[in-house]
Structures are given as C-alpha cells and as structure tokens.
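User: Study the fold:
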Amino acid sequence: MKKALGILASGLLVLALTACGGGAQSSTAINEKKIVVGVTSGLHEQILEKVKEVAAKDGLEVELKVFSDFQMPNIALAEKEIDANSYQTIPFLETYKKEKGADLTAVGQTVLNPMGMYSKKIKSLDELKAGDTIGLPNDPTNSLRALLLFQSAGLIKLKDGAGDEATVLDIAENPRELKFVELDAAQIAKQLDDVTAAAINTSYAIKNNLNPGKDAIFLEQKDSKHHNVIVVRTENKDDVAVQKLVKAYQTDEVKKFVEDTFEGSVIPVW
C-alpha cells in the first residue's frame, strides 16, 4: 500500500511540475528559430523577402504566407495558422479587434504606404471645380483615411468631434461643392476615367502602374497615423522570434532597400 501511494504521489508531483513549469510556455511560445509571417501580395511581400534575408543572419528563419485580401491575414493569425503579419495600419487593426474580439497586438512600426489622390483629368488640386466627382474607398477604415486626406488638402472640413468613425455624412464644409462617390478600394484605380480624381491606397496604385511619388497630385504625409505595423497574438508579443523579426525589419539595410526600390512611394517610419 505504501509503495502504491508513493508511486501515486510521484505521478502527481510530475503533473504539477509540468503544469507550472516550461510545459505551459512551450505550448504558446513561437519557435525561437522560425516564424511564419502573413503578408499581402505586392510591396509588403517584397519588403518581407528582404527582411527574411536580414533575419537569417540572426538565426531566424522567416517563412512567408501570402494573402490576396485584407481580412485573411488577421483571421489566420487569430486562428494560429501564422505567427505574425505585416500589412496593416493601426486604425485597421483596431477596427478588426473591435469587430471580431481578436486579442492581437502591434509590436513594431514598419512603413507608410501613403494614400494619394490621382487623376487622369487634372494635374493639381487647383483645377478642381464645383460639381467635380471625387472617388474614395467604401470600407470604413480607408474611407476615413481618405476623408482625412481630403481635409489635409484643404478640400473639406469634417464636423468637430466626428472622430474615427467619420463618414461622408460628417463633412461640415465643402467649399468647392465636390461630389464624393464611395467605390471598392481594389477597383478605384481602374475607374479613374469615371471620376475627376480619387483617393487610392498605395498597394492598389502600384498594381495599376501608378507611382505615388510621381503620379499623385496630393500625397499623405509621413506623420500620418496610418503607418503599417507588425502584428502578433498578444500572448506572443515578448517572444524571442518576434523580437528578432522586428529587429530585422527595423534595420538600415531594410530601410535602404525600401527607399531604393520604391523611390518615395513607400516611406520607412522607424
């Protein structure tokens, strides 16, 4: 009987040590030598390919998983199909967290993909006249961003207190009597013939052979709050692999790559 009790006690002790010790951490921590990062196709994929090279020098293998839309990288992260993602802005992240209840955290600033105003009909904002049509994205985050862009350009003024949920209905002043039309963000560049000018995200501009640094008639500035970030599950924000990923991204080598490759169309903000 005593021998049996001793074996039972030993077994319970092992279970207790496993629960309190390294076992709990290993079930949630990201592998220190490899991290899977979700990106959207295009410029974020290009930049992360360079980050991958830099991270390898620090003993971290970066595996990229490329997505074609703006929702799946967060879904995949929340469902632990990937370890991190790099493609979104803070406002986009906050909206997603609020709507989905996802426990995600930004861990490092990356680049600003400046939203710009583009046109096939005018070469400067001074040419805008009453009744001209301005296109903007129809999703809440990018619609707000476009409205703030128009406001910084002096085209409109939003209602006081409109805040981060402002829509076209919150335009308080429109001195040029412009008409604002909400369109699908991915299609706006293809519809420039149908509007006088339009606000277009950098990723979609580049895909449609528009160079933000050269072709935009007005461009978002570096101090915009809509810069991009690396995002992870909150439980992994202090993991070694995450720290190495951020360190690799925020290097002079990556900064030079961004500046040389995109010629001012994508701006490093670290």
